[in-house]
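Appendix B. Raw example, untouched.
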Amino acid sequence: MPFSVRWIVTVGVGAAMLVALTGCPEPKAQQAAAVTSAPPAPYDVVIVLIDTLRADHLGVYGYDRATSPNLEALATEAVVFENASSAAPWTLPSVVSLQLSKFVCEHSVYYDGQRIAAEAKPMAVQLQSVGYQTANFYRNPYAGAMSGLERGFDLCASPRTQMAGREITAWLQTVPADKRFYLYVHNTEPHDPWFAEKDELRDLNLNVDGRMHKKIEQVYRAYRPLTKVDFSGAKDVSNVGQTDNTDEQIAAMNAMAELRPQIIDCYDARVLEADKRVGTMIDALKAAGRWDNTLFILLADHGEEFGEHGGWQHDQAAYNELVHVPLIVKLPKGAHAGTRVTTPVSLIDVFPTVMDVLSRENLAADTRGESFLPLIEDTDAKSDLRVVSMRYNKKKYFKPNKELRGDINLVMRLGKWKGILNAEVNTFELYDLEADPDEKTNVAAEREQIASRMRELGVNYLRDCLSGKMEAGASEMTAEDKKALKGLGYINEEDENP
């Protein structure tokens, strides 16, 4: 279903050179792939992903701090999806799901050392096949070559600083005027360890001094390794996650809980920092004369836990502090500007939506997601029961969580209802998000009919999805990957072969 207006996206304006990029090797299969003879569509595509960005910490989603003035301005020109879910509660499976439009039960990439299957065709491969120039600038290695997500990108690079308008401008100067492009930017400002800059703290009237930053770092560094003792350095994670260090983890989480207000202050300051950079990207597009004809998508791979359900950071649950993410879609010519869509969607829907916009639906034939363009055209469209997210944990272990929820959690939405199938322990949770947005009261027993319907869908969906799963490939981390992942806390300092 092509959109009713025609557009083109791009970025840029004259400026400096791209700095300190680590290039991604071009796969042999990519070298051999022939570009099809079909002419490219007349639009460009830009996706900006802010790692670890919670929707409810943005003004456009009702937050009371001024963390996102640029995103609020963007929302006036765009479509805001109020109930978008990430495909997974941490980066690796989430970004693979975004680029493939498949849940983790199908693409099978969920722990360090895995990359997408040889037969997988990410969005970049499909767009490259019809003549697009493609570029991937990622600050989190899970979004790049380590996971196989360099596939289809002419340029795949890990900048040493967060991407902003200047860097995008420089890259745009390499794009011929008559060439369409797909640009993916993955920044990580709000990701722990939450080191906030003075400027943003001042802008938000917050006071977190150097001593408090050091204190936060100490409790963060103490907690992170405890969650993945068995997973650190493991090549085979099929039977790990047995070390019971419950008391140590609880003590570390209690220490973080004591600093919760200051941690949130730092997180919010980092969100504002990310927002400022997005503003410079938009300014670059406007200065280049491209903005009016741009398809610009702003989203996140997951959120962040601050103890709402007993956990911290991410990956440990499927509640909304982790899976409810921003999704702001600026359509060309300002079409449907200011529209808000309440129907639940998933980030696996982005790939088919992009192809729908480009009148290239055939390129999304092998995707699980659904184009959300019909929801933009008709915001009163009836919501269908569907799966929106999946947690498949082989990254962290906390015995109480393992016993309560297991490691496989399937999230379903139907209007105001959210269901979570805890497949391993055979339990089901149901929440009325209108009455209980914080997911504190499980009403599965009282609402047996809707709970039963959701549970049945989840069981059948998981079975069907697993029956068609791909075999993930193996990957080795570069020294640069290891350094970046250690900085983000994903692997421990002592890990040599994570």
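End of appendix B.
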